[in-house]
Amino acid sequence: MSAQAQRRAFLQTLSAAGLAAAVPRAFAAQALKPGTDAALIVVDVQNCFVTGGTLPVAKGEEVVPVINKISAAFANIVVTQDWHTAGHASFASSHGGKKPFETTTLKYGQQVLWPDHCVQGTDDAALHKDLKLPTAQLIIRKGYNKGVDSYSAFEEADRKTVTGLAGYLKARGIKKLYITGLATDFCVAWTAMDARKAGFEVFVVEDACRGIDLNGSLAAAWKQMTAKGVKRIQSSDIALA
What we know:
The chain is an alpha/beta fold. It is built from 5 helices and 8 strands; from the N terminus they run αβαββββαβαβαβ. Helix 4 packs parallel to helix 5.
């Protein structure tokens, strides 16, 4: 079975579990004016997740100019990076006989196995060269614990280990988060839902994200996010002046 077929099979399992659904209607918003209590969260816009990377999201690089444009509206910007060790537990290569997009069971539960990607200190893990965020105040690196994956910018996959991002934002008086980046149906969605759990008002900027979108995975992510109170907007909904 090819890697693509294996990935489809995994996502069909999600659909069978009742997670897939029709894409919900976008959040209807008039011009949103982020204040000093709002932050732009830029998730994993790295070389590994764009064309030519080790785990590319289709057209992932298209988010870069959108994020650059809307960043002017924000006084607070946080960037995240996937930052894995070599031989990370989430890599298929770390499990004999396993292939990318298969699953295995780790001590915290089921884990999707990925190609080696975003290894610490490599060009593959670097932020996209055209991402221009000179006023970003914080970079959160996640997935650096060798035995635990981390899609969310708030909690690792064991659902116990926190990154400290929630505490940082609350200490800064941040109440509203605008989330962008890669990929919509994995790290963006997990970050958005954990942000809601932490008590933030959350907007996901749809055209500043790209998803994997196989066999209903993107619709499933939007359904889950909407159920948690995440609001779906477009970059044009954000006032830049």
